[in-house]
């Protein structure tokens, strides 16, 4: 390579930075190495040194400091390649990191050749989707798809409710008791009981709490208000 690779290592554990630094500096293709110990410093040193590749720790001053720093860096320097650096595999964090724009991830205790390959592949824009990453991403997309299908399913049920049933369900989801609903709506308790029975029948459920939990978990009323 004519110019060589400039790397920024971001980790709040000095020994980790030192180990990776020692691995990278032995390779002639790596011509410049800088280190940072938190998200803010990562952003600052990226602005100063314009690295080609960043090895970014996720857990630093906060649980997701690396992801936030990744967002900020790629907003201003979209051509920089960022590799997530972590000590253990967490499906949710890995997915969030790829959503933020990282191109690969390596474990901190990975062998020297693995770390070097990750840096060079990222620089060449040829980072592989490793089998374990692909599996995690497929699992996360499947989970999201399942949630979306559930959301549509329950929105469809809610759309079949009458206006009075819908009002009653909203009040139940707000934590109102049957007697409070009667007072708010100026109706008899028998009317509210009848409406709740109809709601449960449409949801094919015998448990009011179950329906309330589903509605609140999926934020259905918030979704409907934004449509």
Provide key terms for this protein:
single chain; 227 residues; alpha/beta; Rossmann fold; Arc Repressor Mutant, subunit A; five-stranded parallel β-sheet; 11 helices; elongated; transcription regulation
Mean pLDDT: 87
The count of domains is 2
- The total count of strands amounts to 5
CATH class of the largest domain: Alpha Beta
The span between the termini is 53 Å
Any guess at the CATH architecture of the largest domain?
A: 3-Layer(aba) Sandwich
Helix content: 55-70%
CATH topology of the largest domain: Rossmann fold
- Tell me what portion of residues adopts beta-strand conformation: 5-15%
Low-confidence stretches: none
Biggest beta sheet attributes: 5 strands, parallel
Q: Rounded to an integer, what's the Rg over CA atoms?
A: 26 Å
Order of helices and strands: EHEHEHEHEHHHHHHH
Structural class: alpha/beta
The spatial strand order of the largest sheet comes to 2-1-3-4-5
Can you say what the CATH homologous superfamily of the largest domain is? Answer: Response regulator
The assembly state of the depicted protein chains is: single chain
- Tell me the number of helical segments per DSSP (H or I, 4 or more residues long): 11
Overall shape: elongated
